């Protein structure tokens, strides 16, 4: 069955290519825009995007913007594949005498039902995983007297900021990449964390939040009561040396924003 479908789809593609070439010769105008070009502006919604944000909600907005674009591309590809398959089936299927059903009807219905079930299972899995992950992060924050760096996604870090809002305890978000400077400041923050037992430290990959400019990273954001209190993009600018800073320099910086 798979070989037959493959031959059908190949034949459809060849027929479509031949038809398009014939139309181009008959019209004698290769530069005339196609219907797809004319309708492109209507089919692709314009998404306003002002670049990376430094607030919790803004960072996640950037993260969701990238996800929406990826989902849109996937949906368009799926729609194109579905249309091609439907055309192939219409050309080669035969109707029986009772009710007009084709030999493809049952297989197609089974495939649609299976895909729907798989999508529901995926949604449940990711929802349950996210809930478990947030619960684990919350327990870790509550049980640890010295809150060392906890890895989190942009969505998870927003949850942590919201959950710690009532306590008034500071939440320090450290956005890093794979640079030597990020690894250095991350190591010093881990070493200094026991001094700030009242604070929660969370590490997030800067690229996941839309910060692709390596010169801006590492970034330190400090929240209290759910609000951004200290915004230190390119935090090395606040240290005596951008590369060779020491533990005492990082401790002095953390003192200034966490011991208030």
Report on the structure:
It is a single chain. The chain has 7 helices and 5 strands; from the N terminus they run ααααβαβαβββα. The chain has 260 residues and is an alpha/beta fold. It has a domain of 113 residues: Glutaredoxin. Strands 1-3-2-4-5 form a 5-stranded mixed sheet, sandwiched between helices. Strand 2, helix 6 and strand 3 form a beta-alpha-beta unit. Helix 1 packs across helix 3. About 11% of the residues have low confidence.
Strands, helices and their partners?
Blueprint: H1 2-27, H2 35-43, H3 56-92, H4 105-143, E1 150-151, H5 154-163, E2 171-176, H6 180-192, E3 200-205, E4 219-224, E5 227-232, H7 247-258
Parallel strand pairs: 1-3, 2-3
Antiparallel strand pairs: 2-4, 4-5
Helix pairs in contact: 1-3, 3-5, 4-5
């Amino acid at each position: 069955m798979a070989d037959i479908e493959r031959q059908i789809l190949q034949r459809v593609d060849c027929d479509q290519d031949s038809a398009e070439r014939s139309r181009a010769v008959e019209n004698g105008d290769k530069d005339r825009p196609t219907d797809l070009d004319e309708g492109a502006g209507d089919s692709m919604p314009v998404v306003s995007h002002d670049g990376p944000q430094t607030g919790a909600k803004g960072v996640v907005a950037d993260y969701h913007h990238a996800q929406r674009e990826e989902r849109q591309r996937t949906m368009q590809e799926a729609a194109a594949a579905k249309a091609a398959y439907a055309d192939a089936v219409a050309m080669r299927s035969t109707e029986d005498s009772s009710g007009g059903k084709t030999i493809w009807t049952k297989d197609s219905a089974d495939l649609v039902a299976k895909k729907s079930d798989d999508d529901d299972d995926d949604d449940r899995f990711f929802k349950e995983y996210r809930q478990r992950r947030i619960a684990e992060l919350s327990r870790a924050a509550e049980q640890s007297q010295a809150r060392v760096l906890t890895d989190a996604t942009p969505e998870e870090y927003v949850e942590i900021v919201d959950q710690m809002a009532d306590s008034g305890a500071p939440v320090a978000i450290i956005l890093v990449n794979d640079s030597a400077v990020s690894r250095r400041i991350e190591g010093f923050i881990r070493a200094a964390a026991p001094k700030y037992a009242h604070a929660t430290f969370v590490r997030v990959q800067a690229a996941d939040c839309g910060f692709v400019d390596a010169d801006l990273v590492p970034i330190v954001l400090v929240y209290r009561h759910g609000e951004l209190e200290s915004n230190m993009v390119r935090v090395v600018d606040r240290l005596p040396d951008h590369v060779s800073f020491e533990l005492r320099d990082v401790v002095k910086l953390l003192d200034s924003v966490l011991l208030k």
